Amino acid sequence: VRVAVLISGRGSNMVALAEAARDPSFPAEIVLVLSNDPGAEGLARAAALGIPTRAIDHRSYPDRATFDAAIDMALREAGADLICLAGFMRILTDGFVERWAGRMLNIHPSLLPLFKGTHTHAQALAAGVRLHGCTVHFVVPELDAGPIVAQAAVPVHEGDDPDSLAARVIVQERRLYPKALALVAGRRARLDGGRVVIDDPP
Ligand code: GRF
């Protein structure tokens, strides 16, 4: 399964996916890393790993639809079967999301459906939750609302601030995303209506 990873920044989740995909038994290969920001640090990290990269600068496009069309073209040129959003900070148009329905994953730094949107760690602290974490889900037009593939939880410690909590969550993200991608690429996680069904390992 040919996977394109879309990033906007550091790309630490992308690196975790790329490193997992190096294992010959991993059911997917990363064929492209694409960023909306030409300056994204993750582009250099992908290149260092020998992965083809593209920068499609959203500021060069008059509107979201033409930007998304450029992304779609790059994905098709790369022969991508599946998209992993990993720290990708652009809202994709409904048309694009529907074209990739069932073939686009995202990782969100909270236990969805809690704390959608941004500043999730500050939201968790403000809510006083004792458990926080991250979620890999299929992308649907509604933001942070798609069928959940996998989650990982972390405890919230006394004295945590958003940075200390983020640091604990990101460790789990890097572990969770490769596992979730393997389930989907290995066709062990499949969409059944609005939910994900996980088949037990053979
Ligand atoms: C991570 O917290 C991820 O959950 C969110 O963006 C942050 C940065 O990710 N989507 P990365 O280091 O760029 O992969």
UniProtKB/TrEMBL annotation:
Reaction equations catalysed: N(1)-(5-phospho-beta-D-ribosyl)glycinamide + (6R)-10-formyltetrahydrofolate = N(2)-formyl-N(1)-(5-phospho-beta-D-ribosyl)glycinamide + (6S)-5,6,7,8-tetrahydrofolate + H(+)
GO molecular function: phosphoribosylglycinamide formyltransferase activity
EC number: 2.1.2.2
Residues that bind (6R)-10-formyltetrahydrofolate: R64, M89, R90, I91, L92, N106
Transferase keyword on record: yes
Keywords for this protein: Purine biosynthesis, Transferase
Signal peptide per UniProt: none
Function: Catalyzes the transfer of a formyl group from 10-formyltetrahydrofolate to 5-phospho-ribosyl-glycinamide (GAR), producing 5-phospho-ribosyl-N-formylglycinamide (FGAR) and tetrahydrofolate.
Protein name: Phosphoribosylglycinamide formyltransferase
Organism field: Methylobacterium persicinum
